[in-house]
Design goal:
single chain, 79 residues, alpha+beta, three-stranded mixed beta sheet, 3 strands
Length: 79
């Protein structure tokens, strides 16, 4: 998969979960994709201080991205 395709698929995945985050007063932005395997995102709004944001990142964001792009190994949150 080309980098542009990869990026588009990751954005589709983020768009799928964005409404749930926005419903809780948060949001998410794609920051970067490293080596075609690691997705860096920025949690925003209430998601930055939410006590379950790591759970959200793993069970929601990472799982959804992997559905769209199975080659992704990890999703990390950056400031």
């Amino acid at each position: 998969m080309k980098m542009e395709e990869l990026r588009n698929e990751v954005i589709k995945a983020l768009d799928k979960i964005r409404p749930y985050l926005q419903n809780d007063g948060g949001d998410i932005t794609l920051v970067d994709i490293e080596d075609g395997k690691i997705v860096k995102v920025r949690l925003e709004g209430t998601c930055t201080s939410c006590s379950v944001n790591q759970l959200t990142l793993r069970s929601g964001v990472e799982m959804t991205i992997k559905e769209y792009v199975p080659q992704i190994e990890k999703v990390i949150s950056v400031e």
